[in-house]
Amino acid sequence: SVTTVSNGGPWGDWAWPEMCPKGSYASGVSFKVEAPQGVMEDDTALNRIRLHCSHGGDPSGGYTAKSQSSRWGRWSEARWCSHRGHLVGFALRVQAPQRRLLSDEVATTSARFACSDGHVLEGPGSAWGQWGTWSPQCPRAVCGIQTRQDPAQGLKRDDTALNDLRLFCC
Known about the structure:
Vitelline Membrane Outer Layer Protein I, subunit A, five-stranded antiparallel sheet, 42% strand, mainly beta, 14 strands
């Protein structure tokens, strides 16, 4: 099954799904975030998400399932569920479309992931936008990711990068 939220950004297309290896699930997450670029520059905020897959709660396998690439930003350190926990749901912080001349559209600015052990893993994204409601929780665990990405618009155009997210339940 798939778990979603209703507040994702409107731009771009859905990329291919990326799945953890069979029998494994996501127990950690890292974020690729572009820092604010300043006045009159193009911001993209949260650009990419990487699920860290584990088998039986052992994160040493090193396998990741990552959303479609974007060139902006830097990767954060991985954040992990504790006590052999795993990801079960998420929420997005999204800046609603500005729809004003010369406005800088950003879309998804941060994400939170719920762990089966009750912990919440929050990304280092931007404070722009509003948090939406939590997705329905996966009955067992998350084992895949799919993102809606706005491709690079080229020189002097407004880029939004990551717009929306779907997680696959296993």
